[in-house]
Amino acid sequence: QILILDFGSQYTQLIARRVRELNVYCEIHPYNNIPAITPDVKGIILSGSPCSVRDTDAPMVDLSRFRQHFPVLGVCYGAQLLAQTSGGEVKASSIREYGRAKLGTVETTNRLMQGIDPHSQVWMSHADTITQVPDSFHIIASTETVRVAAFQVSGEETYGIQFHPEVTHSLQGKQLLHNFVVDVCGCKQDWTADSFVDSTVADLKAKLGNDKVVMALSGGVDSSVAAMLVHRAIGQNLYCIFVDNGLLRKDEFASVLESYRTLGLNIKGVDAKEQFYTALAGLTDPEAKRKAIGKTFIDVFDQEAHLLEDVVWLGQGTIYPDVIESVSVKGPSATIKSHHNVGGLPDFMKLKVVEPLNTLFKDEVRAVGRSLGLPQNILGRHPFPGPGLAIRILGDITPEKVAILQEVDYLFIDGLRRYGLYDQVWQAGAMLLPIQSVGVMGDERTYERVVALRAVTSVDGMTADWAHLPYEFLADISNEIINRVKGVNRVVYDISSKPPATIEWE
Length: 506
Ligand code: XMP
Hints:
The protein has 13 helices and 18 strands. It is an alpha/beta fold. It has 3 domains: 2-184, Rossmann fold (3-Layer(aba) Sandwich), CATH 3.40.50; 193-379, 3-Layer(aba) Sandwich (Rossmann fold); 398-493, GMP Synthetase, Chain A, domain 3 (2-Layer Sandwich), CATH 3.30.300. The strands form 3 sheets. A 9-stranded mixed sheet has the order 2-1-3-4-9-8-7-5-6, with helices on both faces. Strands 12-11-10-13-14 form a 5-stranded parallel sheet, sandwiched between helices. The radius of gyration is 26 Å and the shape is globular. Bound molecules: xanthosine-5'-monophosphate.
């Protein structure tokens, strides 16, 4: 594997993703919390950083631990760190360099630079630049304005590059990473979804033995894939619980339960609708609603878990971005996301936690799910928030409002599928607004509810744009909703991006 030392760059996760796309396993660790180095580590990548090596409190590592023991590739800050700690000079650039640049000269006989076109476009993002390198540093690429765009230390497999090979705007960045990871480090490209399934199932078997595991499933991709892995390892010793909180989509409880049963999971569906509606009665504040739902979930889950005897483990679908965030250079994040679907593990349950997906990115989770034979209706599902329709009904929640919104949501999502648009948007749903507006139906004046449709494109939900859905589709869906859902006489479409808006309205 490749070890990536993170100095806090916004692009560090991208380095990991690119390395994994080469079918090579890698891990990110903060520069100030490096684990013991295992024999399977074949190379080290030093990430970029928002800091300057010239700062007195610049993030530092003892490079002698790595240089001459492993191949090392410094990217941006990492390259500057290599240069500066070897007696080179790093200064603030006279012009800040952000964006596209073209390489000018490239030493293509160098192992790192094999196959890189001398005029290849690269992506720069740096305020400092390396102005002097020691004699032992051999420059292997330059641009018009950056003389030390890439170097190798003579007699060492130590390299530095000023540009960012991990961003797609560096057009041959993947080739360069391939050169480093495969040719220089000698990594085998055998890390695939199938190999992950085999090794994870074997690890889980060893770790769990005959122990019993309980898991809450949400119908979403992460918890479903995690459950399938544990199930493959321990079969019926995995007890799954799927709670109907009364805030799911129309017919979703029954259909997801059916899918899980078909997959052979030992699953219990728990109808807790009334418990959730009672807890939510009269609450209008979004955070109060979230808290009430989280607490009720724990109560229900705890009740159910106590019916099971001798359970030792709690399985969770935590994925790698949550883990990276909670151990990041910037310190543990204020919001703990890893218990999203479970709403937090109460201390008194004293269960050990098993998280088989905590080294995977979202697209890798999908690939593993495919390898495990999960159906597309689970794998391709849009994200859906834990508090469900409760944060799409602005104001207080009643079963009647839920029923109206379920119908609207059903017509919208079904329409997206019929028009072949479902897979083109990242997430879609409808909001029930706490206002009424005047309309006319036949000869009658109406005074009914307004719903807002929301569909976004996004990569990770952190930023999003409103989906530019075809007018004909919107016209068709608007008609259908108003004609078929009693109590709604107006449909609007949300054209806000995130930021400054959020995806959900609450
Ligand atoms: P926002 O509204 O913050 O949403 O732009 C970003 C993504 O997170 C989902 N979301 C939640 N998921 N519990 C969840 O499990 C929540 O309380 C919650 N709030 C928002 C939202 O659906 C979107 O995918």
